[in-house]
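Standup notes
- DV: blocked on the single-chain target, sequence here:
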Amino acid sequence: MPKPTFFNLPPEKQQTILEIAIEEFAGHDYGVASISQVVKQAKISKGSFYQYFEDKKDLYLHLVDLAVEREIEFLLASTPPESQTNVFAHLRWIFYRSADLVMDDPRWCRIMYRALYGDVPFRDEVYQRAQLALRHHLQKIVEQGIERGEITSEIDVDLAVFAIDTLWDSSGYWIPQKLGIDVKKLDREQITEEKLKFAQKWFDSIIYILEHGLSAKATQKNLPKS
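- DV (later): unblocked, structure below
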């Protein structure tokens, strides 16, 4: 968490420092990212930096928090169509929106990918911070689904949220792997219409599994076609 002195800066100066930090950590793993480069480009002294943040880790965790806040704000910025009030249609819409978020500003995706799969020595702390707000959002959706009878009341809410979140989170690793995308170098030009359609089919299959399960006895009529 930045120190009060950072928030006392003019908003434009705060944004300048953060934009430079975003570029630095989006372009380099934690161990390589340089505070010296940040202060040089921001035209501040190292002494000033340490008046704003405790250390490199403090700045990095602040960027992680901002990335999570941005994702939640992006998901809440618009409401699902009326036809998607069903809990599983709602989840599908959220997954689709997460792909739109990557298109909106790939730098945040690169930061979070490096945070979760890079050389961060405090990855567990990063993961907990990243998942807390997202799981709270998913919990509300699951509880609404149970109230409407769309999700069985026999299932533990935390378990349902864990299952959804794990499939969603892992998709951020597996989809790029399947498409041969280096997320650390991700930009808008790499995200073609064909790749977006692949991601959507992937999400369709995840929703199918969540709604119908893996049993061969379950109905197959709604299975997404590959």
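- Follow-up: The radius of gyration is 20 Å.
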